[in-house]
User: Fold these one by one.
Assistant:
Number 1:
Amino acid sequence: MDFALSKEQQDIVRAAREFAEGEFSDVAQEFDRTETFDLGLWKKACDLGFVGVFIDEEYGGAGYGFLEHCLINEEFWAVDPGIGEAILSTTFGSELISLFGSEDQKRLILPALVSGEAIIGTAITEPDAGSDVTRAATTAVREGDEWVINGSKMFSTNGTLATYMLIFCLTDPDSPSRHARHSFILVPTETQGYEATKIRGKLGIRASDTAEISLKDVRVPAGNLVGRRGEGFKELMAFFNCTRLHICAQAVGLARAALQDSIRYTRQREQFGAPLASFQVTQFKIAEMATLIRAARNLYYEAAWSVDQGRVDQALIAMAKWFSAQMAVSCADEALQMHGGYGYIDEYRVQRLYRDAKILEIYEGTKEIEKTIIARTLLRQ
Ligand SMILES: Cc1cc2nc3c(=O)[nH]c(=O)nc-3n(C[C@H](O)[C@H](O)[C@H](O)COP(=O)(O)OP(=O)(O)OC[C@H]3O[C@@H](n4cnc5c(N)ncnc54)[C@H](O)[C@@H]3O)c2cc1C
């Protein structure tokens, strides 16, 4: 297998890096402090073709693979994770539409996501259903030609900004298998009964919108079912096989930023009459970080490349997600440590990286769930 980046992929990396370096640095601290984001930056990213590159050309995308989307994610997160998440999560759900949506749904939604006219989110998690998604209790009941949805969702990315939300609903509660009870239903967020409340006070990625959603007698046409009735769980697993790749790339980007800040700071900061970088203990930390980053990147390149070749390896994806997230948390921790007390105040980016890193071990499957997937696959073989 050959994972070397093509010339085109290298150009994508260069362009994404230039954009992020030019646009994010000056505003990152303010967005973090105020938990806000300027949607103008997302529009700009859309105009420059960074959003939804994996979407087929016939639906307005660039027709690239997930690897290219990962490369952009890595570069954006290498400058600021919060802004990277705010921009690139605007297509979170397009993968489900691409994989399982009807032709009408694809034509309605996908081009609008790429051009910056619409934002999508996917709401699975509920107050009582996190890692165990089969406990999701938001109901969707068929009444004539409509679905009537009632329930609440927790931690939905883009909840207050999205044009469309894909809601993971309990449609077939009597099915004997808990894996055949749910379905995805597309809800335009302007529909009566949809209410999103922004969750404030997040530890990290504070530029990204996270919300609690209440759904009270939300009525949408029967045709808003995405995929097949009762197959929502299986579709969700296929969705995660694509979206977990993005998390790996985010982790590598964040860890790169941590390494970059560590090198810069330890070269310049002197103690005991010498730069911190001259101490072997610092050098070992730098060496370990650089090696871990490279290992994580190779793992996600392989995982993304395999998916793009149509060879989905769920255990490999879980390995890449678990390893890269843990690697990023550990790199951010060591980077802050190398900054001493200065790392603890928000004047330096490193404290933001330290806070931003933790989400990588939580969303889209906690580290425990990823390890469970890996072990189950191996023990089943
Ligand atoms: C910023 C942010 C953005 C998010 N965006 C979205 C989104 O867009 N859409 C969405 O649907 N959700 C989203 N989430 C939710 C996220 O996916 C969940 O928080 C995550 O899946 C964990 O669920 P939980 O928080 O309920 O924790 P729980 O499932 O209650 O887990 C708590 C702890 O118990 C552990 N645990 C649980 N079960 C087991 C087990 N069987 N074995 C061992 N350990 C176990 C977990 O690993 C974890 O450490 C987001 C969350 C955050 C914080």
Number 2:
Amino acid sequence: MMAYILDLDGVIFRGSEVIAGAPDAVNRLLDSARVLFLTNNSTQSRDAVSARLNASGIRCRESDVITAGYAAAVHIRKRYGAQKIYPIGEAGLIHELKAEGHEIDEGGDEDAVADFVVVGLDRDFTYEKLRIGLRNILAGAGLIATNTDPLLPVEHGFLPGAGAIVRALETASGRSAFVIGKPNPPMMDAVIDHLGLPAHECTLVGDRLDTDILAGSRYGMKTVLVLTGVDTAESVRQSRIKPDAVIGSIAEMREI
Ligand SMILES: [Mg+2]
């Protein structure tokens, strides 16, 4: 059995748009292989991601999706049990934390201290959230980042990614975040757990060398870079991280 692990932003989607030819290409892969959707983006729940894929014509169940928010919630539960968490992130992150049994600290009680501050992309990020996050960390909370992507590719350019928010907390607190997302082990461990397949039967398709391609090659998977997201043919030439194949878009994806 072969499995394809597909990144979302820059591979299937660009902002709110579906990349041309992506649904047909993914459904072709699904005819003969397993497909797992893997995203460092924590803003949406797995359920919302699968609904979005279905609405785009791609066959997908909630259990076929791993987000960095879900992987963070699972990692914390497996290592520490149910914890009290101050989240800096959007509804999708909070949903996954609750689904794994964690308690959400809303940040209103100035005497309360969370076990962890968990940071993902938060498009409503404020100085007040930074202050409350810092207060918790200085009082002993651990700092966990869903991911540290600097950029999020959207329709006509880029938005600041979760990494920019994580850096603000790291700078203020003097601590380094424990990072869940690609290319780090917690996210990839979640992938291996879900698939139950040896890495050499897996092909990882992504748009970033320093997250997707690095993660896949570290785990002994085949790697394919698409040029519809962050990295370009030029950045491939300049990087020491080399994918097994480079294709213009996922529409050109054939079984490898
Ligand atoms: Mg991507």
